[in-house]
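Write out this protein's structure.
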Amino acid sequence: MDTYHIIVLDLDGTLTNSKKVITPKTKNALMQAQCLGKKIALASGRPTGGVVHLADELRLDVFGGYILSFNGGHIINYADGSVVYDKTVPVELTASIYKEAMDLGLQIVTYNDSEIILGSQGDKYTDLESFVNHMPMRKVDNFVQVVDFPVNKFLLTGEPEKVLMAQGHMQEKFGDVLNIFRSEPYFLELMPQHIDKAYSLGILLDYMRTDRTHMICCGDGYNDRSMVQMAGLGVAMANAQEEVKQAADYITKSNDEDGIAEVVRKFMLV
């Protein structure tokens, strides 16, 4: 059997259950794996600040795990806080992205280390982003002046039909310089070009001086398909999108049935 040294976990719909928490059974399995010297990487579209509470719960600082936030746009070694990789949206695009979002009647947010910066009135979807990430929201009157630094992503929110229309418009405007996709029907992500989880995991594997044959990747959503496909063992949750299941080598139980615990016990605690 292949020896798997690292397990890469998407968060929402994968590591956490429907209540957005890690169950005791899953946590126990992951702690056992780390005690054997296995490494955990948390790979999410969330901002870094929205991942750290889960990294702390799993003691990634003690065991030497990794966070891939912003869909892989930012990678940190959680043992010492060092940045392994960082790719940002060109800062000169901020003003035009903001203007297009306002013209389309959408909400816009971005992030710094500790908070979500809101450049519009806000809605139930920006509230959801704040809740899921355990990060406070700060509304600012002059978004372009405040966001004078490079960011890893912008998030536009609104009713699904509005966001769907906006996706085509924003791709027409910025598609040659940004990666633009819906992560939820009400979330439109604007990311640096070419960023996805598989690309960034390639960088992490080089940093760790290992290769994909020693890596398990687990996920459920569209943005997990690339890493599930490139892993030594690609795992889809029972609740995963169909195309993720088709890309997977193994389908585990759902995120509400401790699917990750099953994977760890079957493939890492042996």
